[in-house]
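Aim 2, interim progress. The first record below pairs a target sequence with its structure tokens.
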Amino acid sequence: MNKELSVAITSAKKGGKVLMKYFRKKFIVEEKNDGTPVTIADKKSEEVIIKNIKKTFPFHAFWGEESGEHGRSEYVWIIDPLDGTKSFARGLRDFGISIALQKKGDIVLGVVYLPATNELYTAEKGKGAFKGGKRIFSSKIDTLDKSMVYLDTNRKKWEADDLWDKGSSLMKKTEIIRSENGTNKLMYVAEGIAEAYVGLGLEPWDVAAAGLIIKEAGGTLTDFSGKETILLNRCISSNGRVQKEILNILGGKNNNVEN
């Protein structure tokens, strides 16, 4: 294990301890300018994560959901300190922490930690994907009629309605489960529990770590046009075997709507 991965894991677990300190406790849920919720747990978790990484890599740059972009370096840590704030605030357990390391624009490391269940997913570029140190692989199912697909619509009703309209054919072909947040669902794709995840209203910190883990597990993550990127709003992630079929239903040029 290289130093960057070790530090990312330690930082994610430290952030997880912060989240569990507030989990199912009373706190205020605020609303950011973009309409997304934020709590003291989000902010404190990000502070702890960045502080821990800086101890070892003081000259690296950071891009956090709560603190934004700061520092200049060919190495950029992309951090989501609490994915699933709505679930967290309601006392549900499906929330997580995502930490990715970008080198010269390329994601080379990804860590996803689910504190409530103590599940840890990791990947380094070219070295495979792991859960709790054990290698994981995406599912081998290659048709939608046998697939489980998670559909994550965001707070913007017009986008959700648009996706449901476009996805009518998809829903007829497969089992759709509606979801409210994506980190653990993306990990279901990575470890072969589900075949695909379709999400709206996403940001780079939502998919940077998960995208690498899924790719290293044998899957793929793209926008609705089929482009592999973390700069997306709409995401299709799958085991790779049903990606083309989903893209044919939902994809097409100019389908990647901006926030």
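The second target in this work package is listed in the same format:
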Amino acid sequence: MSQTLPPGGSTRPADLPPTPDGPAPGPDRQRRPVWLIVAVVAAMALVAALVAVLVWPDDGDDAVTEPTTTGAPEPTATETTAPTTESPTTAAPAPVDTSTAVFPYASGDVRYDDPVAAARGFAVDFVGFTDPLVGEFMQGDARSGEVEVRPVADGPVTTVFVRQLGDDGTWWVLGSAIADITVDSPATGATITSPVTLTGSALAFEGTVNVEVRQDGAREPVGTGYVTGGGDEMRPFSGEVEFGTPSAERGALVLLSLSAGNGQVWEAATLRVAFG
């Protein structure tokens, strides 16, 4: 016998009890909650996993590795010290004995590396030649020689004696000599006192030979005078020249013949002396 269902009715047996929330669900109503639950559970599991990763404490096993570079390392600044070399020890030069030198003055700064220059300096600055003609150096021994000086081209010769006294190569003047004036006394290097007696022979204008007593370090004489020789030929002379007390231990006697034309120095004889 067929049973007629009411409109909107159900095929649920009449003897099934109703569900608490209402009528018992049909087949479609039973599948929807299962998929929904599965989706919710999967989402919650994903969220839980993400949270665990984010908040999981670092146990220190994950070491941070600095990036490495390849190629040559950067240069580092290094302190360099210049090598030092010790200068060789050199002995001080031995002092030069200038006791025999008339010029230049040992107490001054003038020195000559050339014998001709030394002779010229002596002729002009010490004797008083105006514009002398200075000849070439004539070698004597290894350390000495002579240089001729003339007042004019055809004038008489004053021979200047030069020598190297030390190892520095400088030249010194020991004195000068001329043919027209010879000195017998005092001898070269003698010790003199005032008045000094001079003897010798001379040929000069009117026979007059001017005498100057010089001390080292000064152009101005400490005493002047004259002796008389021959005016036409060599004749002997003898005379005395007074001088003041010098401040230096040594000096020179300078005997001068002057020009008859202008009174300038014509020739000169110079010898080294000491003062007593």
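Helices lie at 27-55, 115-127. This observation will shape the mutagenesis plan for the next reporting period.
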